[in-house]
Amino acid sequence: MAGSLIHRKRRKLKSEINVVPYIDVMLVLLIIFMVTAPLLTLSVDVKLPSSQARSTQDREDPVIVIAYPDGSLGVQLPGDARPRVVDREQMGALLAPIRAQQGSDFRVMVAAQGDAPYQHVLDAMDVLRQANVSNVSLMTNAGGDAR
């Protein structure tokens, strides 16, 4: 008789969503993002060069060699209002008397128009080296083209 008196309770079905697994997944993802986020912002330290150079405005005007986009060169002497176009052979002949007159204080600045390839700037510096000019600087202009 004991076996027939056993009544089983029937459980009711729950119609709720069990959110515990979702919370576990969310916490695992949170930990993964917390660990990987600092790794994404790693960067390389770049040591930029610094200079103690003075402005050239307080010294006498230098000779300016301009590299044009078509490969031609221009020279603007201290008294000239506009640069004149010269070829590579004329450059040395034009700068030799000025270099002899100014001596070690002779400075040449190389400028380029904004759309000129950098190879033309290097070519202008090579022409100056062949003309025995040792004090060569690059001219910059914050507003765009040098001349």
Automatic annotation (TrEMBL):
InterPro entries: ExbD. Keywords: Cell membrane, Membrane, Protein transport, Transmembrane, Transmembrane helix, Transport. The chain crosses the membrane at residues 21-44. It is a single-pass membrane protein; Single-pass type II membrane protein. It is found in: Cell membrane. It holds the Pfam family ExbD. Belongs to the ExbD/TolR family. This is ExbD/TolR family protein. It comes from Luteimonas rhizosphaericola.
